Amino acid sequence: MDNLWLIIGKADNVPIVMMIPLFAFYSWLAFKQATANDRLIADGKYSELQAEGKDRIFTWPLLTRNEFLCAILIMVILTVWSVALDAPLEQPANPTKTPNPSKAPWYFLGLQEMLVYFDPWLAGVVFPTLIIVGLMAIPYIDKNSKGNGYYTWQQRKFAISTFVFGFFALWLMMTFVGTFLRGPGWNFFMPWDRWDPHKVVAMTNVDLHQFFGIRSSLGAFFFGGFVVTAYFSLGAIYYFWKKNTEFLKKLGPVRFGILIFLFLSMMSLPIKMILRWTFNIKYIWVTPWFNI
Cys-Cys with 291: which of 6, 34, 174, 283 at CB 3.0–4.6 Å? Predict the structure, then answer.
């Protein structure tokens, strides 16, 4: 575990080390408040608070004052931090001696980890765009006139579950893996492993069409296209199967189409990771222009 403590103690890893417990604490706090509000609603006491005007607080001075105090506190922490820790600058670039591993700043390590599983245009452009747009679109797709302005789990299950999975289980996990579990050669190391710069891992990856014995490029093109099309068609199948449910009636076909596209795109990341880890599958769809 000595190697892990060395990684945790590096100056450029301080933000991610601080971020993990902070996210855990504020997530727990939000779910605790949501549970308390749901209990009040279930007991019929929330309407009493609304009638008395106790279900809300004023932005000024209560919220503004707290935000101002937090800004001062953060400024003090950043000042002490910048004085106490040296900036993680390295020697001038030397083309004869490149660092190993070469890692992006911690806030880009999630993207760098995605490059293991997808082409650069997907990992660097398409997925970050879909993630940002998708997370912003969730409240407008899963609209709930009752669940506005207060923490609640019962009234926003889908939106909260999707956000938690996309942001915590995928984005933060990718950043964590890139920071703590990727060593020299971008090889995977467990926390208790020593980072051996001479470690060699045999690259035995194959594309999906090769896994099924398809060798021609034309066959690979149509086979991969069929698999990807079939995957995204699952959304249409689900819609016609469950279109009479209350959830889909509320969403409507347009919002459901946007929602299911974003959801399936998000789920393609863990699916691709599992395929790589278990079957050494590199690409699903191989074409002369792009690979997925």
Answer: 283
